[in-house]
Amino acid sequence: MVYAYCYPVPDNFNGADPTPDAAYWHEELGEFLLPYAQIISSPDPDATLLAFLEETYAVVADRGGWDRANLEIPRGSFGHPYDVRAHRA
Q1: Each residue's pLDDT tens digit in the chain (89 positions)?
Q2: Which of 48, 55, 64, 82 gives 42 a disulfide partner, CB atoms 3.0 to 4.6 angstroms apart?
Q3: Which residues, in sequence order, are CB contacts of 71 under 8 Å at separation 6+?
Q4: How many domains, in total, are found in the chain?
């Protein structure tokens, strides 16, 4: 089982529906869960796991009211990572 969580949990998490379809919010545990079997049986396990992690982050950030524009940096590409040092104020 792969999980993602945040603390504290925003009040409006009921009904959060992350991707992929097998992922879900477990109210009692206070975590998003994705069965490992769903990852390894998917056509692209890396993409499936990344989608789960990105989606759960987005749900937490959006419903938690985070200032995403000031928290996030652009993603680099393979062989060309984002240059954090060059973009610091």
Answers
A1: 999 988 888 777 766 778 888 999 888 888 899 999 999 999 999 999 999 999 999 988 888 889 998 888 777 677 777 777 887 76
A2: 48
A3: 61
A4: 1
Q: 51-57 contacts: CB < 8 A, separation 24 or more?
A: 51/19, 51/20, 52/2, 52/4, 52/18, 52/19, 52/20, 52/23, 53/4, 55/18, 55/19, 55/23, 56/4, 56/18, 56/23, 56/32, 57/4
Comparing CA positions, the residue from 25, 27, 49 lying closest to residue 36 is: 49
- CB half-sphere exposure, 16, CA atoms < 13 A: 29
**Structural domain of residue 39, as residue ranges?**
2-69
Return the structure tokens found at 46.
């890396």
User: Is residue 81 a part of any domain in this protein?
Assistant: no
Within a domain: residue 37?
yes
